[in-house]
């Protein structure tokens, strides 16, 4: 049975308010009302959206908020593909077309792309809502070209998120709190040697480079 979080992401009403209301509020929750997560997110995204002729895959793209940002400075034949399982989210994404973006429905556990297809692969604010999320990391690495990068933003266990009440509420809603080394260890098992992890507030930003 889908979790509460999964049902919400597939709801047309949630998809309609996600970009303008849901996502900003959720970012504030990560920062406990502060601006740490939002500020690092802005810098992280700016790096990934640097100018160049690259192919980018945005996994669990939702309504395309990051997909459009990542495509903004691409040059030449550069293109950014957003993939999501939610038809409601994708329907919202295509209402704001961009010449360097396209969207496709797909399962993050079985990405519909060949090995070594993309220069940059991202997965933002989604892994903690996906059932059995660790195999998704294997897929992110699989479709990344050698020398390419994988960027992840997700949850992390902290003093606050390890409190019994917080954990219970999160689990009931289908929300997963990842251990400090859980994401990085899985990346290493997938054969990644260079990994940069930054924990900000209640979340973690991870940048991995495929050998």
Explain the layout of strands and helices.
Layout: H1 4-9, H2 12-30, H3 36-48, E1 55-59, H4 65-71, E2 79-84, H5 87-93, E3 101-105, E4 118-124, H6 134-142, E5 144-155, H7 164-172, H8 182-189, E6 194-200, E7 203-209
Parallel strand pairs: 1-2, 1-4, 2-3, 4-5
Antiparallel strand pairs: 5-7, 6-7
Describe the protein in words:
Keywords: Methyltransferase, Transferase. It holds the Pfam family Methyltransf_25. InterPro entries: Methyltransf_25, SAM-dependent_MTases_sf. Residues 56-148 form the Methyltransferase domain. With 211 residues, the chain is α/β, with parallel strands linked by helices. It has one domain (4-209): Vaccinia Virus protein VP39 (Rossmann fold, 3-Layer(aba) Sandwich), CATH 3.40.50. Helix content is 37%, strand content 23%. It contains 8 helices and 7 strands, in the order H-H-H-E-H-E-H-E-E-H-E-H-H-E-E. It has helices at 4-9, 12-30, 36-48, 65-71, 87-93, 134-142, 164-172, 182-189, and strands at residues 55-59, 79-84, 101-105, 118-124, 144-155, 194-200, 203-209. Strands 3-2-1-4-5-7-6 form a 7-stranded mixed sheet, with helices on both faces.
């Amino acid at each position: 049975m889908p979790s509460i979080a999964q049902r919400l992401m597939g709801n047309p009403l949630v998809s309609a308010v996600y970009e303008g209301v849901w996502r900003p509020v959720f970012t504030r929750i990560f920062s406990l009302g502060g601006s740490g997560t939002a500020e690092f997110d802005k810098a992280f995204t700016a790096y990934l959206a640097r100018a160049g002729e690259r192919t980018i895959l945005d996994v669990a793209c939702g309504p395309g908020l990051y997909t459009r940002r990542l495509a903004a400075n691409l040059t030449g034949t550069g293109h950014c593909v957003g993939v999501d399982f939610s038809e409601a989210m994708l329907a919202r994404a295509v209402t704001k077309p961009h010449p360097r973006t396209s969207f496709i429905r797909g399962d993050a556990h079985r990405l519909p792309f060949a090995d070594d297809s993309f220069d940059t692969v991202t997965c933002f604010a989604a892994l903690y809502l996906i059932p059995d999320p660790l195999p998704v990391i294997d897929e992110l690495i699989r479709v990344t070209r050698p020398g390419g990068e994988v960027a992840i933003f997700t949850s992390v266990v902290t003093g606050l998120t390890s409190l019994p009440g917080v954990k219970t509420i999160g689990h009931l809603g289908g929300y997963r709190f990842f251990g400090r080394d859980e994401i990085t260890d899985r990346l290493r098992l997938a054969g990644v040697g260079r990994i940069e992890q930054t924990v900000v507030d209640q979340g973690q930003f991870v940048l991995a480079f495929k050998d």
